[in-house]
Amino acid sequence: MTDLAARFRQLWDELAPVGRDERSGGYLRYALTEPELWLRAWFREQADRRGMPVHSDGNGSLFAWWGDPLAGDAVLTGSHFDSVPHGGAYDGPLGIVSAFLAVDELRAAGVTPVRPVVVGAFVEEEGARFGVPCLGSRLLTGEIAVDRAAGLRDAAGVSFAEALGERPAGADPALLGRFAAFVELHVEQGRALVELAAPVAVASAIWPHGRWRFDFHGEGNHAGTTRMADRRDPMLTYAFTVLAANKEARLRDAHATVARVAVEPNATNAIPAKVTGWLDARAAEPATLHGLVEAVRAKAAERARRDGTELTLTEESATPLVGFDGGLAKRLTTLLDAPVLPTGAGHDAGVLAAHLPTAMLFVRNPTGVSHSPAESATDADCAAGVTALARVLEELACR
Ligand code: GLV
Ligand code: MN
Ligand code: MN
Known about the structure:
Blueprint (H helix, E strand, L loop, with lengths): L2 H13 L18 H16 L4 E3 L5 E5 L7 E7 L12 H16 L8 E6 L12 H7 L4 H6 L8 H5 L8 H5 L1 E9 L4 H5 L3 E7 L2 E9 L3 E2 L11 H19 L2 E10 L5 E2 L2 E9 L3 H22 L2 E10 L2 E2 L2 H11 L3 E4 L4 H5 L5 E6 L15 H19 L2
Parallel strand pairs: 3-4, 3-5, 5-15, 6-14
Antiparallel strand pairs: 1-2, 2-4, 6-13, 6-15, 7-11, 7-12, 8-10, 9-11
Helix pairs in contact: 1-3, 1-13, 3-13, 9-10
The structure holds glyoxylic acid and manganese (II) ion (MN) (2 copies).
One manganese (II) ion (MN) binds next to loops.
C-alpha cells in the first residue's frame, strides 16, 4: 500500500462506523441527524487541524478556507455527508475526505495557493430526509425559495428550519461570487471506469432529472366485506402506474424508478384510502424526460378513471440538463489524461454549474453499485483520486 493510500485508509476509518447499520451494512446518515452532526463536527476538527477557518452559509452547508475568505477567485471542492437510507460509504464523504487529503498533498509538496482553496460540505444532497435533493446548493444559489425550503418536513414532521435551528438564510450571491470554480470528486455510480480500466474520469454532463409525487385517492373500506365491483382501490392505480413508468422509460431509453411508497392506512385487511408513490425519472434529453413523465401521467390518469380513484401529481424537484463547463472539463481531461463520462446521478455540482465553472471527477467503483451498501472503491483508486484532485487544485488555485 502506498503512503497516500494508507493515509486515506486511516482517515476513512475514522468515519466508517458513523451511522452504519449493523444489519444491512449500509449508512443512515440523514441530514442534521446525529450521525451527520458527528460528521460535521469531524469536518470542523479536520479543518481546525489544518488551520482552515470554517464558515457556514446560514443554510447548513460548511466551508473551510485555506487562504483569505474575502480574497475572491477561490477554488471550491468537497461534497456531502448525508446518505440515502442504507446507502454506501463513498457517495458524498469520499469527496470531502479526498479534499482534505489533497490539501495535505499540496502542502507536503510545498505548493502555496495564489487563490483560496475551500473545502465544502453541502447539507441534504440526497433529499432523503426533506425530499428535495441538493437542498444546500439550491439554497445557496437561490434556486429554491427560502419559505419552501424552511417548511419542508421529514417523516416525523420536523421542518428543515427546525432541524437547522434557524430559518435558512437563502441565496448568498456575495459568497457565491467569491468562488471562481467548483470541482466535486465523487465515487462513480456505474461500471464505465471498470470497463475503461481507468481509476479516475472527468464528468461531461448530468442527465436532466426530477421527482414527481403521485397521490392516488380512493375509498378506505373493509377487505372482507366490500364487493370487488364496489371498490375504489388506489393500490390498483398505483400498481398500474409503476408498470407504466417502467414500460415508458424502456421505450425511450430513459430511467424511471418508483422506490418509495406510502399507504394509508397500511393495514392488511383494509382497502387503502390513499397510496402515494414517488417517481424518480431521468433521461439524456429534456424533451425525452418531459415526454416520459407526461406519458406516465396520462396512463395513471386513464387508469384512475377506470378504478374510480383520483390522481394528483406534484413535481417535488427538477434539475435541468447540466453540461459541465467545456473549457474546464477539457483542461482537466488533458491535465489528468482521463476519460470523460456523462452520468444519470444528481450532484450539488449540477446545481452550481449554472452559476460558476464547475467540474466533477469520478473514482472507479468495482461493483458499479451505488445508493446501496455494495458501493465500493479500493484504497489505491481513492489515493489516485486524491492525487488527481491535488493536481486539479494546483492547476486552478496555485498558478
Ligand atoms: C443523488 O445521488 C441522485 O442522483 O438522486
Ligand atoms: Mn447519491
Ligand atoms: Mn453524492
